[in-house]
Amino acid sequence: MDLFGEFHKVEFNGKPFLVYRNVIKPLPQTQTSNSFDKQSIDSVYDLPPQPLFLCPRLRTRILLNSLDDEVEDEVTNHILSKYSSSPLFDETSNNHHVLPLFWCNNKEVDPEAEEGDECYSCSIQTIEKSCGVCRQMVDSDYGAYTCNVCSGYVVHVRCALRKDIWDGKELAEVPEELEDVESFRKIANGVILHFSHRHHLKFDISGVFVGNKFCQACVLPINEGNVYVCVECDFILHETCAYAPRKKVHPLHPHPLTLKVDHGDALFQCSACMRKSNGFGYDCTSRTCYYILDAVCASTVEPFNYQGHRHPLFLSLDPKEKPMCHICKSTKNKKVLNCIECDFIICFECATLPYMVRYKHDEHYLTFCHGDEANGSDWCELCEGKLAIGGKEGFYKCKDCCTTLHINCLLGPDPYYKAGQTYEIEDTFEWDYTQNAEYTVRSGYWVATHEDLLEEEAIQPPPGSTEVKQAIWKLHVAPKIKHFLWRCVTGALATNTRLRSRNIDADPICQRCCIEEETIHHIMFNCPYTQSVWRSANIIIGNQWGPPSSFEDNLNRLIQLSKTQTTNSLDRFLPFWIMWRLWKSRNVFLFQQKCQSPDYEARKGIQDATEWLNANETTENTNVHVATNPIQTSRRDSSQWNPPPEGWVKCNFDSGYTQGSPYTRSGWIIRECNGHIVLCGNAKLQSSTCSLHAEALGFLHALQVIWAHGLRYVWFESDSKSLVTLINNGEDHSLLGTLIYDIRHWMLKLPYCSLEFVNRERNSAADALASHVHARDPLFQSYTTPPSWLVNTLYYPYTI
């Protein structure tokens, strides 16, 4: 037999019997009285059905007597010793006056009963009652525990033996009265002397929210309600906290708890919600037990009326289960409350959060909401972070003003810490504003935005305009782009100048152009490579916006342009994808030593933007309707020549190669943003070995002409894709020899220049100039107005 068994009432052939069932180990199928063998006797769990209400020792003796021929005396004594060794049985060998309480709580037995008679009758009446622990119905045919004081309180046997309910000690003859010690002494009407404070406390009704006053017991802010205020100092207690008993028995713990006010120079961690606190706590009275509850968790009672749920909650789940909280989605080892009418479960960490709180910048109460109640338009007013829809954390929201705040932003990362107290912790560095003493960006932002900190402790908020940052989160781009732009504005990207400002040994000069310091503004707008990418994407930026400005100003202009409904979505939001490609290209250049061409980065940006817009089409605006291949929709593939941005010039060049010719024919044409010709010309250069060599000679000559005429902001275009790829990727070629190094040398003299590939039709003017080189012509010819034979290759209105 086992102390954790139960006898269930069953009927066989119309007669009542008791069948033993173990509540810990599963039993094999119950056998009939005519099918026992020696193996069933050896198992103390396989007892056959027996007459109703017989003592288990007596039932076993009857069974052994019926099998006297098959069972040896040694086996009989071994089985009977199972009962005499139990602390719940009498030591006499044959008497059965003392019965296990977990089979029935009626110990009144007839000592003169004959074997086979009733030993007792169960005192649980045949009425429906629910277990005081698991809240399930108790069958009156089964044994159970009842309370001798509270009428109708019943507990299942298996529930009463749970480790969080019973500590394993027999409580017979032990008085259960808990000494009732009041927490305060009444001095006068509305005046008390609380044991935790030396001054008198006066009853008061707080009608105004005071954000910097907290209850000394639960450490929660004082809102409207009844409080006790010290008449001499700032000591305040909520009325419920002042009336809290000094000793109590809580359903979370089997031992009595006593109220502890002073914790010395240490914090304690609540055993229910796992938060650290330095307020009042209920400590276990047992010397070997370190269980402690903070004042908020200790105030919970069953049934717990949680305002966020329509049904009452109970502590009915077995501690062995690991349920998931419906608020924070956590399955950690935390105490939970559950609803017996539905499947709602909430942990103590979430259940003990204030359901309604006040925010100093809002005149209404803020109500706690689940993460599932968030929508795309909800933002935290303090940290400006977006509330995660269906996230693991709840938030507070004003129903009237729609103000939303993160829990940690409103209450702080550790809401149960008293302000103004310090703790000595040796050999460690800790951040005082998080539960695990580790710094987080969220806690740092909370510290930076609270005015009650000392000036020397105050942290400057992150840079950047609030309006720009809010506009970033409303852009119709991928979340990674929004987060990237936000980091750009707040200075959170590790540019060389940013690293240098944090005392990290880094060269502040841009490693790509080696001209200016590498700031986020330089990377995104000023670097010559960057400007080439913008031009390749046909996005006009830079000088036409006025004098050079800050990154934030330029980004704000792009955001305002994105709100223009006259253009399609790709043109409106492409600049933000190009900025993302610029940052990735910069990292590849620094850490992988790979230099992608501006044309490649522009095409990748267009492709990424197109794919995302096609996958996230909305009915709010005109459908994107962009082609799968973005290059097919780009103006760069049309036959129309496109002018450069204002302040720049565009130089198209071309070369003609003829095998065996003593010279190479070259032509070039320079035009400004309005399409007017600045200069054009052709030349007879040295002989070349192949068409690639001829194109390289033509490019070198165009570079020298541009330099000689004092032009610095130049956009070169060529119809030789091999040459463009070779130059932009920084590669060498055996057919070019040292010519490639001469080209790079002259390009360094023109830091604001780029080389792009165009088709033959868009380069037809340069091709016509190169084709009009004859043997009798001089080595170099230049024109400030186009010759008649050149006008036909210029497109209206870019003719003269």
Task: Kindly describe this structure.
The protein has 800 residues and is α+β, with helices and mostly antiparallel strands. Among the domains are: 32 residues; 59 residues, Wheat Germ Agglutinin (Isolectin 2), domain 1; 89 residues, no CATH class; 157 residues, no CATH class; 143 residues, Nucleotidyltransferase, domain 5. 26% of the residues lie in helices and 16% in strands. The chain has 23 helices and 31 strands. The strands form 9 sheets. A 6-stranded mixed sheet has the order 30-29-26-27-28-31, sandwiched between helices. Strands 8-9-10-11-12 form a 5-stranded antiparallel sheet. The chain is elongated, with a radius of gyration of 43 Å.
Net shape: elongated
Helix-strand category: alpha+beta
Q: Which percent range describes the beta-strand content?
A: 15-25%
Number of helices: 23
Overall mean pLDDT score?
A: 75
Number of E-state strands: 31
Question: What's the topology here?
Answer:
Elements lengths: L4 E8 L2 E8 L15 H5 L7 E2 L4 H11 L6 H12 L44 E2 L6 E2 L5 E3 L7 E3 H4 L23 E5 L2 E4 L6 E6 L18 E6 L5 E3 H4 L4 E2 L8 E4 L7 E2 L6 E2 L3 E4 L7 E3 H4 L14 E2 L21 E4 L5 E3 H4 L4 E3 L6 E5 L25 E3 L6 E3 H5 L29 H8 L17 H8 L5 H12 L5 H6 L18 H7 L1 H9 L14 H12 L6 H23 L6 H18 L14 H4 L15 E8 L7 E9 L4 E9 L5 H18 L5 E5 L2 H8 L10 H11 L3 E5 L6 H8 L8 E4 L4 H4 L9
Parallel strand pairs: 26-29, 29-30
Antiparallel strand pairs: 1-2, 2-3, 4-5, 6-7, 8-9, 9-10, 10-11, 11-12, 13-14, 14-17, 15-16, 17-18, 19-20, 20-21, 22-23, 23-24, 24-25, 26-27, 27-28, 28-31
Helix pairs in contact: 2-3, 10-11, 13-14, 14-17, 15-16, 16-17, 19-21
